[in-house]
Amino acid sequence: MSGELPPNINIQEPRWDQSTFVGRASHFFTVTDPRNLLLTNQQLEDARKTVHDYRQGVVPPGLTENELWRAKYIYDSAFHPDTGEKMVLIGRMSAQVPMNMTITGCMMTFYRTTPAVLFWQWINQSFNAVVNYTNRSGDAPLTVSELGTAYVSATTGAVATALGLNALTKHVSPLIGRFVPFAAVAAANCINIPLMRQRLVMGISRNDLCLQYRQSSDYSAQAAQQAIAQVVVSRILMAAPGMAIPPFIMNTLEKKAFLKRFPWMSAPIQVGLVGFCLVFATPLCCALFPQKSSMSVTSLEPELQAKLRESHPELRHVYFNKGL
Fold it and tell me: Are 211 and 70 in contact (CB under 8 A)?
């Protein structure tokens, strides 16, 4: 390898130690940076070329280590880690903060009437469906029928939860009613993520379980269940600060003269509050669990354990991309 860079920089992995929460958080603060959305297609292609060239042993003259890592993170922000395909713009992790702050802020502002609940829950689940599909783990294409089932089920679950809780909270404190959108989002995540990744419910292939063992098409439902559970937990916790803190602030502000005089400011203020929370909650909750999850061989299905022990008796753990 020629050039100024050492030949042993492992850009297959994140720059920071992913065995620690701080390392994972540093990684996701970079990946979820909304400024990545402003990059042009040419910049994305240049980053991809730099990364691919370096992996092949080709280094452009003058390329520094910081420039290499910057190219790697630009590449990671726009291309799927398993398939290498360019991801849909609004499905990328760098779109999470601007998209979620807008949708969530509006859900929490316009939650009192049935048409508003129907519209914003539909918008939210449409966005979630795009994100879940874009960031699915492994090369697991879904059919139009499977996509439709997941989308309709999640939207129905969210709307039913929101309308049901709205009816129950009509005669309680208005503050309680402000938490209805959060309950609807949590319920929808429990439906949407498993259904959008239903191929994983049938199991993560042994091809994904351990990169050095590609000769088998065996699947592990145990690994799939762990991956989906971790994503559901992190998504709900990701939404929690932005949907749990602003209601207290807005409940106080709406009693003040300013919002009584300018009620149209309620939505922008709420969107801003949600955005501030999401700037920190998104990367920190993505970092709760390692992206490359691990599972002990002894936790796999007995038949898969037997096959792995027969072919590779030294194997103790398997690894897989859990998705985001």
Answer: no
